[in-house]
Specification:
about 375 residues, alpha+beta, Alpha-Beta Plaits, 2 domains, 8-stranded mixed β-sheet, 4-stranded antiparallel β-sheet, 14 strands, globular
Amino acid sequence: MTEQDFIPQYYDSSILTEGSYTWKTPSNIALVKYWGKKDPQIPENTSISFTLNNCHTITSMEFIKRRSESDHISDQGETLKQVQRDEMNFEIYFEGEKKEAFKPKIASFFERIKRYAPYLNDYNIVINSKNSFPHSSGIASSASGMSALALCIMSLEKEFNVSMTDDYFYKKASFLARLGSGSACRSIKGEIVVWGKHELIAGSSDLYGVEFADEVHESFKNYQDTILLVDTGEKQVSSTVGHGLMHGHPFAKERFKQAEENISKIKTVLKSGDLKTFVNLVESEALTLHSMMMTSNPYFILMKPNTLKIINKIWEYRATTNSNLCFTLDAGANVHLLFPVIEKENVSKFVEKELAQYCQNNQYICDIVGNGATLL
């Protein structure tokens, strides 16, 4: 499919004057990382991720038909019927509080998708969102947040096109989510999701994420992810800035090549169930991601001292137990512990006894690979 396939040929917004949709969408954790992009939100390399279950965002989008072009949203009142339209056509609330700081990013998103969702301008919109995890702490809150908003938008579009297929619905939702946050396109549907065109992944695309449809070994069923919250504060450097620093990066070309090769390798590993190779590949990808940050110009470090202490504890644990526990990192200080479900009891004891002390306020989240978004 191309961008043209996602432009509505016809819609009649007069058939729907008001309504609301609510979606719960998961975060995801990339195994092969995406770092570096071209406009508009096209990845420089293919990535693949586990969809999470417990780390999610719940977003509602309430809308009401504009009475006229002069309608505007005022600063008074808490519900959509009490407000009128402002020049950006929406308000946003996060965790129950109005968030003006979030508006520029959402406004930019609406601007990017206006040719694909022109009907949005016919409505006043209020967005309410909340996370099950700390915002901006390296658990891909933009991925779950933007995917939830994209699905709300597609629920509205489906009102104008009742014959829309589920396949088109989810592909376009992923396409729209990508234009808000690249990794958000991997939070729509499926346990394992690929984003980026790759010759060995059937149906893969730079425009949206696709479910990994190949055979997956039993060892990867109900895979566990315990997230150690080393730092729950906002990141020092945003992912958007970090991606931009890949332009002109001295090692970028080789990194993109490495990622494509690792997609081929992990495809084989997911089928064979070779957990030792999985551990090596996933940890290498995590450290490569952060090495690209440390060698960009300007350079930066998102890991904290306790991140490194946890990594070394994991390596010690694996050396003495022959465990298949491994770590991965997103663009932040927190550590994701990935392991097969048969090790859940032992790893839980290890986390509580050895690793929780390195987490902020001893906080960690026990998660599991899930299957995508849910309409509430």
